[in-house]
Amino acid sequence: MHGPVVPGWLLVALCAVAGVSCLVRARGCAGHAGRSATGEAVMGLGMAAMAVPAAVPAPPAWVWAGYAALFTAAAVPAVGAVGPLRRGRTRTRGRAGGHGWAGGHGWAADHGHHLVGSLAMVYMALVMAVGGETGPHPGHGGPGGGLPLLTAALLAYYAVYVLRAGGRLVPVATASPVPPGGWAAGPQMALACRLAMALGMVAMLLAL
Predict the structure, then answer these.
(1) What span, in angstroms and rounded, lies between the C-alpha atoms of 52 and 57?
(2) 197 Cβ partners below 8 Å, 6+ apart?
(3) I want to staple 139 with a disulfide (CB 3.0 to 4.6 A). Which of 132, 159, 174, 205 is the partner?
(4) How confident is the model over 108-124, as pLDDT tens digits?
(5) Structure pTM?
(6) Contact assessment for residue 103 and residue 130, using Cβ atoms and an 8 Å cutoff
């Protein structure tokens, strides 16, 4: 999935900064927000590691299998939240607001987006592992790697997410007061981190 060296390192820097920012945000948040920030930090740092340019010696195939296992484990909390979410929606159906269980649409959207991201990382890691055995550039996949329809679906999802998040970022940043935990715990920081990682995901999928 690695392209030219300079854009590749820029992608690594973008994902690494997003991951570190999520770690900082996790320290200033509690409960669901803190867990969400920690999961996003794992996602960002994992993306940075996977995006290292082809100029660096390629890792063996088992490293990509390790990435796949890591992100499969990262997806488990989001999968486990599906049952309580559905039960909560049933309990709150017809009530005022209709936001569902445990904090509304934001809670559900966070888990859904995290699940899609984790599974997308598993998919890319598996493609890289197979490419390390059969591709023309060991450990870096080959042109047209993966399943074209699945890659296109993930690209469409992240393209829409980038457009929606970008549209929400400016009004959130200008209208929201500084939260008790400081700027790092604010909603604009969380949205900016997710937007950066979504842009990184688009770049990685395009190069897959």
Answers:
(1) 10
(2) 15, 18, 40, 43, 44, 47, 117
(3) 132
(4) 667 788 889 999 999 99
(5) 0.74
(6) no
